[in-house]
Specification:
Layout: E1 2-7, H1 12-23, E2 28-35, H2 39-48, E3 54-56, H3 61-70, E4 75-78, H4 86-95, E5 98-101, H5 104-110, H6 112-117, E6 123-125, H7 128-137, E7 145-152, H8 170-173, H9 183-191, H10 193-206, E8 213-217, E9 223-229, E10 234-238, H11 244-252, E11 275-276, H12 284-294, H13 298-314, H14 320-333, H15 342-362
Length: about 375
């Protein structure tokens, strides 16, 4: 029986994790829940799964960290959105518990602070792309890996050139063709910032150089990512787009949970396409790679500026192309601190948000 603490239980990842657990109560026991909002749903979840330890409040990160440290859990699923998830990620690693990581921002922002705390195998990725890579990597040894290939759906604007994106509306940016996600992640998928963040995440999780991490556009979202080996073999993980599969693996890695997902139907004709990424129309991936190579506080600045710019876009204060333009200008203006600490990260994030707001106001 795996004892599970779920952070972000009322969000997309959290509710799907509870869907998985609901079907396998013999295998998983929910011992704690935390949510930023939706008190009614949190209370209903606590009643259904008989959970006494809960935390509610997006502005209560210290309480969430207390919950992480106090609850007797085998695995902590961090499904919080945004860099506020860094504290709970660090707290989980300090306790020695397995971290099922859906909150990519905490790894990207924390960088070396996170990886230095993590024991081998302690972080299990929940993002579908990184779960796919983790599965494919079991086919060979680390020294046999030539490169990682992350797949991207291309978002709602696949095939469009840069000039045609100037008048994109928030409603159009939220019309993702494959996945059902929150506002920030869906917008990041439209700009491909999300894929850029995933490249940084892949580097930190698997220790592969940025020059050996590529992105290919795969509109069907069936192949979730691939690993190419030195003998020319490529191992791909394929399944219908359903987050319950990688979530279930995160909860009990490396064991699989039967009946979680519906397999592909090989009796019907299918066509899968793979296309090169248009870096001119969608420069976010290359910018993210440069930020990742710089390391330190740069990824935190990149992420914080992007969050401010996405909010401004949805509030009508910034155009779609202005999102990444703002992020680039903030990154270019950043002066990193002498030492990477939680305090210097927090200060860099505060500066990045303020600088992004200033640039947006002056636009």
């Amino acid at each position: 029986m795996r004892r599970v603490l779920i952070l972000g239980s009322t969000g997309s990842i959290g509710t799907q994790a509870l869907d998985v657990i609901r079907t396998r109560r013999d295998r998983f026991d929910v011992v704690g829940l935390a949510a930023g909002r939706n008190a009614e749903l949190l209370a209903a979840q606590a009643r259904e799964f008989d959970v006494a330890d809960t935390v509610l409040g997006a502005d209560a990160p210290e309480e969430i960290e207390r919950l992480v440290r106090s609850v007797d859990a085998d695995v902590v699923l961090n499904g919080i959105t945004g860099s506020v998830g860094l504290g709970p990620t660090l707290a989980t690693l300090e306790t020695g518990r397995t971290l099922a990581l859906a909150n990519k921002e905490s790894l990207i922002v924390g960088g070396d602070l996170v990886t230095a705390l993590a024991a081998p195998g302690q972080i299990v990725p929940v993002d579908s792309e990184h779960s796919a890579i983790a599965q494919a990597l079991r086919a060979g040894e680390p020294r046999e890996v030539r490169r990682l290939v992350l797949t991207a759906s291309g978002g709602p604007f696949r095939g469009r050139d840069r000039s045609s994106l100037e008048q994109v509306t928030p409603a159009e940016a939220l019309a993702h063709p494959t996945w059902d996600m929150g506002r920030v992640v869906t917008t990041n998928s439209a700009t491909l910032v999300n894929k850029g963040l995933e490249v940084i995440e892949a580097h930190l999780l698997f220790g592969v150089d940025y020059d050996d991490i590529d992105v290919t556009v795969h509109p069907q979202s069936i192949v979730h990512s691939m690993v190419e080996f030195i003998d020319g073999s490529t191992i791909a993980q394929a399944s219908p787009p359903d987050m319950r599969l990688p979530i279930s693996l995160g909860l009990d890695w490396p064991h699989r949970v039967g009946g979680v997902g519906v397999p592909l139907d090989w009796t019907t004709a299918q066509t899968w396409a793979f296309e090169p990424l248009d870096a001119e129309a969608f420069p976010a991936v290359e910018l993210a790679k440069s930020v990742g190579r710089a390391g330190g506080t740069y990824p935190a600045v990149f992420n914080a500026a992007n969050e401010q710019a996405v909010d401004a876009f949805h509030e009508g204060a910034l155009g779609f192309l202005g999102i990444l333009d703002t992020v680039r200008r903030v990154v270019d203006a950043h002066t990193p601190p002498a030492e990477l600490t939680r305090e210097s990260l927090a200060e860099a994030e505060r500066w990045a948000r303020s600088e992004a707001d200033r640039l947006i106001a002056d636009a």
